[in-house]
Amino acid sequence: RCRFHSTVSRVCTLRLSAARSTSFVVDEVSNIIKEAIESAIGGNAYQHSKVNQWTTSVVEQSLSQLTKLGKPFKYIVTCVIMQKNGAGLHTASSCFWDNSSDGTCTVRWENKTMYCIVSAFGLAI
C-alpha cells in the first residue's frame, strides 16, 4: 500500500513538474521582471533623459530571461516609467487567447521619484 502511494505521489509530482516546465508561471515571470527593473533602474532618481534607456533595458532584459526559460511561448513585454508628481495613469490591455495555456503578469515597482509598470504576456506556441 505504501509503495502504491509512493508511486502515485511520484507520478503526480512528475506531471506537475512537466506542466510547470511548459506553463506560464506568474511567480517565475514576476521575479524575472523585478530583477530586470532593479538591474536597469536600481536606486536611480527619475531623469527624463534616461527613461528611454531604462524602458528599453527593462524590456530587453525581461525578454532575454524569459526566452532562456525555454518554454513554448511567444512573449510580449511592455514598460512604462512615470515620474511621481501626482498625475494619474490609467492603462488597459486586451488579448484574445487561450485561458488554459496563455498568461500575463504585471509588476508595479516604485521608488521615491518614479513608478515603473511592466506587463508580460506569454502566448503558447
Descriptive overview:
The chain has 125 residues and is of the alpha+beta class. The chain has one domain: Tctex-1 (Ribosomal protein S3 C-terminal domain), CATH 3.30.1140.40. Helix content is 43%, strand content 24%. It has a three-stranded antiparallel sheet with strand order 1-3-2, with helices on one face. Strand 2 and strand 3 (114-124) form a beta hairpin. It is globular and about 40 Å long. The N and C termini lie far apart (41 Å). 18% of the residues are buried. Mean pLDDT is 88; it is low at 1-16. Keywords: Cytoplasm, Cytoskeleton, Dynein, Microtubule, Motor protein. Its main location: cytoplasm. It is found in: Cytoplasm, Cytoskeleton. InterPro entries: Tctex-1-like, Tctex-1-like_sf. Pfam families: Tctex-1.
What would CATH call the architecture? 2-Layer Sandwich
State the CATH topology: Ribosomal protein S3 C-terminal domain
Strand content: 15-25%
Radius of gyration, in Å, reads 18 Å
The multimeric state of the shown protein is single chain
Backbone structural class: alpha+beta
Q: How are strands sequenced across the largest beta sheet? A: 1-3-2
Rounded mean pLDDT score: 88
Into which percent range does the helicity of residues fall? 40-55%
Major sheet description: 3 strands, antiparallel
Number of helices: 3
Unreliable spans: 1-16
Quickly name the level 1 CATH class: Alpha Beta
Keywords: Cytoplasm, Cytoskeleton, Dynein, Microtubule, Motor protein
Family: Belongs to the dynein light chain Tctex-type family.
Protein name: Dynein light chain Tctex-type 1
GO cellular component, one term: dynein complex
